Amino acid sequence: MAQNSDRILCLGLVTLAMAAFGWSFIGGGGINAASTDQPMRLPRILLGLWALLGVGCALRPARSDDTSDGRAQHLGRTTALIGMLFLVAVSLPTLGYLVPVTGGVAVLLWLLEERRPLPFAVSLAVLGPGLWALFHHGLGLRLPLMMSGGVF
Amino acid sequence: MSTILLDVFNVWTLGALLLGTTLGIIIGALPGLGSVVGLSICLPFTFGMDTVPSLTLLLGVYCGSVYGGSISAILVNSPGTPQAAATTLDGYPMAQRGEGGLALGWATVASVLGGLISCGVLILAAPQLSRFATSFGSVEVFALIVLALTCIAAVSHGNTAKGLLMGLIGLMLALVGTDPVTGAARFTFGTPFLSAGFDLIAVVIGLFALSEAFWRVATGNAESAEVSGVRMTLPRLSAWKGRIGTLIRSSGIGCLVGALPGTGAATASFISYAVARQVSPRGDGFGRGEPEGIVAAEASNNAVTGSAMIPTLALGIPGDVVTAILLSALVVHGITPGVRLMTEHLDVVNAIFVVLILINLVMMVVAFPLVRLFGRLLMIPQHLVTAGIVVFGILGAATVRGNPLDVLVAVGFGAAGLVFRLTGFPLAPLVIGLVLGPQFEQTLRRGLLLNDGNFLSFFTDGPLAAVLFLVAALALAAPVIGALRKPRLQDSETK
Amino acid sequence: MRKTTTFAVICAAFGVAGTAQAQTLELVVPFGAGGGTDTVARVFEPGFAAKLDRTVVIRNTAGASGTIGAASVAQAAADGNTLGYLPIGPLAIQPSLRDTSYGLDSFDYICQTTSTPVFLLNKSGSANADLAAWVAQGTEDRVVYGSSGPGTIPHLAMAAFTTEAGINSVHLPFDGTGMAMNAMAGGEIDLFVDTATVMESNDVTALAVFSPERLEAYPDIPTMQELGYDLDFSVWQGVVAPKGLDEEQRSALSDACAAAIEAEAFVELAKKTNTGLMYRNAEDFEAFVSRNAEMNAQILRDAGLTQ
C-alpha cells in the first residue's frame, strides 16, 4: 500500500510534467515571438528532466524506509480541513477576510475537537476578529474587504 | 566619534533598537509572517522619525525577524521565514528529542555570532568586498547558483532521486509567470494572477506551516515535539569544540552571498548547510538533530543581515527587498544612497555600523524572555497551537503581496506538502529550487545572450567562473565517489 | 420564521457596519511597501487626505509589473472609496505588452502627480566619451544595454534609440535597477536609461537626457534631440479611479490631488529625489495617458517586441 501510493504520486508528477510540456506549445509564447531567445526552451528542458526522474522514481525498487503512511490515522478529518480552507481561500476576494476566516476558524476548532464552550469562544474571538482587528486596523496591513470603503 | 555616540545613544534610537529587535523576533517567530511583513508594518512610522532612529527600527526588525524564524522552525517545525527553512532540518528533530531549549540556544548563539562577524566584515572590508561583488557578472552568478543547487543532494537525506525531483519541481515553479527576459506569459493558463508567478513566501507558508498543521491533524499530534514551557539553554563551551570551524565557515559563506545582489539569506543558509554536511566529521548526523546543522544555517543567514548592507551602503545597490526598503528610508530622509554615501554621509554609515552591532547584542538579551514567552504560549493545548499555525499562515499569505489569491496558493501547497510528507518526499529541495530558480534562469539566459547562445563559452568566461564551476563539479562528484567507496554504509545510514 | 428574522437582522447589522464607516479611502499602490512608487504615494497621501477630510490608507498589491494592483483598481466599485496610485508601467505600457484584464478605458482619470525625465547613462570613465562613439561601436560591433525588466521605461527608451540609430544591440534585462547598476559597475552592460536619482547615486555619467529641453538642474547635459534623435521619455505617476465615478466626486478628488502636490512635504520629497512635479487635471491627464500609451505601443511594435 505504502509503496503503491509512492508510485502513484511519481506517475502523477510525470503526467503533470507532460501536460505542462504540451501546454508550452499551445499556451504561452504568444507575445514576443520576434525575440531572439526562446522563453520556453529552459522550461521544456526542466520538464523533460522532471518526467525522466519521475519515471525513474516510479520504477525504482520499493524501499521500506521512505514512506510514513501508517502514522496518519485521521486522513478523513484532514481532507475536510483542507477542503474547508480551500473554500475560505476562494471566498476571500469576494467576502473579504473577516467573515470567511472567522467561519473557517469555527470549523477548524470543531475539527480539532475543541468542544468546551469557553475555550472555543475565546480561541475563536482571538484567532478570528481579534487578529483581524490587530492587523487590519491596528497595524495598517490591509486585508481583503467585502465592500470597498467598508470596515470589514 | 562623539557625534556617532550622540546619534546612537539617545532615547529615540535606543528605544527603536529595543522595539524593532523585539518586534522583529516576534514577527519572525510567528509562522507565516516574515521580514517583509514586519518592515511593512514599521515603514509608515519611520516617515515621522529622524534618520538614525528610523533606520535603527527597520534594521532591528530585519535582523530580529531573520533570527526569529528559527524559533518556530525549531519548536513547531514551521520556519517563520524562508530564511529559516534550513534550520528545521536539525532543529525540529532536536526538539522532538526534548532538546528544544538547547536547539534554541545553539540557534541564538550562532545567529548572534554570525551577525557580529558580518558586522566586522562590513566595517573592515566593505569597499573591497563590494568591488569583488561587481566582478560577478551573469556567468559568475550562474556558476554560483549551480554550486548552490548541488546542495539539494545534501538535504535529501538518503533519497537523492526524490530530492532531485523536488528540486526540479521547485525550479520549474519559479519559471511560472511572466518571462523575465521577453515578457511572454508562461504557464499562466490565461490568468492574470499566475502572470505574477508563485510567491516564495506563500509557497513556504503552505509547504511548511500549513502542511505541518495538516500533518498534526492527520496524525493526531502523535509526532509533535513536546515543547511546552521550554526555556533556552546555551550550549556549553566544551560542546563548541570542533564546531567553531563550521560557525566561522558558515558566517563567511553568509558574508559572501549577502554581498552579492539578488541572492539572500535563504540561499546562504542552504549553501552553508550543504558545505557543513560535506566537511564536518559529524556530517552523517545532519538531518537527525545535529546542533552543527543549526549552527551552519543560523550563522550564515544572520551573517547575511550585515553583509547585505555592503552593496547597499558602498554602491547604493539593494540586494533584496529588505535592503531596498532601507534605501528608500534613506531617500525619504534626504540622503542619497550610492557610491558617495560613505564619503558624504559617513556619520550615518558609522551609526548604522554601531546600530548593527548593538542589535545583535540586544538580540542575545531579549531572546531569553521571548523564548520563554513562546514556550508559555505553546503551553496551550496542542490543537490550539495547530489552529494558530493555520490562522497565521492565512494571515501571512494574504498580506505578503496584498493578493487574497496567495492564500489559495498557500492552501494548495499545504495539501501538496502533506502528500509529499506522507510519501517521503523531502520538502527542502523544492524550496531551494524555488529560491534559486529566478536567478538561475536569468543569469543563464543573460549569459547566453552575451555569448551569442553559446553555452560552452561559459566555461572560458574567466577564472572566477571557472573556479566556481569546478567547485560545483566537485560538490556533485563527492557524494558519488563517497557512495561508490562505501555503498554498504550509505545504505544502512538511510534506515 | 424566527430564524429568518434573526438572519435578516444579522445581515442588516453587518450591512450597516459595513457601510457606516464608509469614510476610509483606499489608495492602491501596485508595488510593495518601500518601493519607489510606494514612497511617493505615502508622502502624497497626507496632503490628499487633509484636503478631502477623509481617512486615506495605502494598500500595497504587488505583482506582475504592477498589473495585479492596477487590475484590482479597475475591478473595484466606482464609489470613490478605491483609487489607484499608478505609474507609467501598468497604465501605459503593460496593456500593450501582455494580456491585462484592463485597458485604458477601464479607468476614470483623476490627476497626474509627477513626471521625471530619464537620462542615457554609461559608466564613468568609460572608453567611449560621447554618444557618437557608442553609435560608432554599435554600427561596427554591438552595444549591450541593460534594463530593469522587459517593457520598462529603461527598456523602451533604449529600444527606441537603437531602432532610430540603427545600431546592433543586445538587451539584458535585470531584476530591478540595483542589479543592473551592479552589472554596469562590473562592465557587463554599456548603457542604461534611468532617472537623475539613479544617476546621482551610482558611478555613472549621463550622455544625454530624453526631454525636449535641457534641464535647469543639469544645464550641461545635452538633449537627445540636440544629438539628432527625436526621443522624449519620462516616468510619471498619477491617480486613477475605477470607471464610472460620478463627475462631482471626480472633480473633488482632482482638486484634492492638486492641493496634495503643493503640500510642503511632497514638494520637499520631490526635491530630495529629483522627482519632477507635474499636475495635470482629469481631462488633460486622460488625453496624456492615451497619447503616451499609443507612443509606447508603437515603439514596442517597431522594436519587434510585440506583433
TrEMBL record, chain B:
* Name assigned to this protein: Putative tricarboxylic transport membrane protein
Q: Is Amino-acid biosynthesis tagged as a keyword?
A: no
Q: Which UniProt keywords apply?
A: Membrane, Transmembrane, Transmembrane helix
Q: Which InterPro entries match?
A: DUF112_TM
Does this entry carry the keyword Transmembrane helix? yes
Originating organism:
Sagittula marina
**What residue stretch is flagged as signal peptide?**
none
Q: Which residues form the DUF112 domain?
A: 14-432
One matching Pfam family:
TctA
Task: From the record, give the transmembrane residue ranges.
Answer: 12-43, 55-76, 103-126, 138-157, 163-181, 193-215, 313-336, 348-368, 380-400, 407-436, 464-484
Top-rank taxon: Bacteria
Automatic annotation (TrEMBL), chain C:
Pfam families for the chain: TctC (PF03401)
Which branch of life, at top level? Bacteria
Task: Return the PANTHER family for the record.
Answer: BLR1237 PROTEIN, TRICARBOXYLATE-BINDING PROTEIN
Protein keywords: Receptor, Signal
Q: What family is this protein classified in?
A: Belongs to the UPF0065 (bug) family.
Q: Where is the signal peptide?
A: 1-22
According to UniProt, the name of this protein is Tripartite-type tricarboxylate transporter receptor subunit TctC
Is Thylakoid one of the keywords?
no
Q: Does the keyword Transmembrane apply?
A: no
> Which residue stretches, if any, does this entry annotate as coiled coil?
none
